[in-house]
Design brief:
Elongation Factor Tu (Ef-tu), domain 3, Threonyl-tRNA Synthetase, Chain A, domain 2, 2 domains, eight-stranded antiparallel β-sheet, elongated, binds zinc ion, metal-binding, Alanyl-tRNA_Editing_Enzymes, Thr/Ala-tRNA-synth_IIc_edit, zinc, metal ion binding
């Protein structure tokens, strides 16, 4: 079996269903990794695994997991997830969505994503980006040196300090490192613990304003392949903002419903965690 093209993906446009031809099946332990020409399934990304894989069925069989894989052009060995030896989108490689199933499949298959689970993950991801921008604004007064700004002009605390981001159904959990290197860049953590509730309130208020503004959200994609460099865009009242993103999103901020932002500081003060929760209707 030789795979000669990257998987085309339709989830960036919001698709949750499709029909496509099986182009390969690879063994994954005692399971099967089914690869099709085009899929609506969002796989877990191997380099920045923020958004969990979609769930659903392929050819009527449950998709037990959905992961990213890569195969070097002209070769047969398919590298899965953490075993991919090159950076996401590297030239000379085909980038694949692998649907893990209990049964091998062939021919044309229907692909059906669990739409409710997808909607909740999309809500969590849209909220995650907005909360990051709101947190940047709420922490803007704590920078004593100039650092790169986010799309709304605030010092980009999020991109400067983030160590992990986890999207959950209807929420997200972002962890930031407040170490020496951040202080050297000009961030002051003096009195942060005392001010934390106020900072969280400001971020939450901003997020609620943006939800009330019913701002449109869209994904710009330079191509249909899995690793095309896509960008999340939101036209907020303060201006249009773009963030590189490989995930899925809602199409308007109003769909997020109500929102809460919680900030937690680790006991030693070295780590800040932001928990965002929304409740789409
Ligand atoms: Zn994203």
């Amino acid at each position: 079996m030789k795979i000669e093209a990257s998987t085309l993906v339709t989830y960036p446009a919001g698709d949750v269903g499709g029909r496509s031809a099986v182009v390969g099946v690879v063994p994954v332990g005692d399971r099967h990794g089914v690869i099709v020409a085009e899929t609506p399934f969002h796989p877990l990304d191997h380099t920045w695994p923020d958004q969990p894989a979609d769930t659903g069925t392929i050819g009527g069989a449950p998709v037990l997991d959905c992961v990213t894989a890569a195969v070097r052009d002209g070769e047969e060995a398919v590298h899965l997830g953490q075993d991919i030896p090159v950076r996401r989108g590297a030239e000379g490689w085909h980038w694949l969505v692998v649907h893990i199933t209990g049964t091998p499949l062939e021919g044309e298959v229907d692909l059906v994503v669990d739409a409710r689970h997808r909607r909740d993950l999309s809500a969590g991801h849209t909220a995650c980006h907005l909360a990051a921008l709101a947190l940047n604004a709420a922490l803007a007064g704590r920078w004593r040196k100039e650092i790169p700004a986010d799309g709304l002009g605030s010092p980009d605390f999020d991109q400067t300090a983030i160590t992990s981001s986890k999207i959950t159904p209807c929420g997200s959990r972002d962890v930031y490192r407040l170490g020496k290197s951040l202080r050297r860049k000009g961030f002051t953590a003096d009195g942060l613990a005392e001010e934390l509730p106020e900072i969280a309130r400001r971020a939450e208020d901003r997020l609620k304003e943006w939800i009330a503004a019913d701002a449109p959200v869209r994904i710009d994609s330079p191509g249909p392949g899995l690793t095309a460099r896509r960008t999340w865009h939101c036209d907020l009242p303060e201006g249009s903002v773009g963030i590189p993103c490989g995930g899925t999103h809602l199409s308007r901020t109003s769909e997020l419903g109500t929102a809460t932002v919680t900030l937690e500081l680790s006991a030693d003060g070295s780590e800040l965690t932001m928990l965002t929760a929304v409740s789409p209707a």
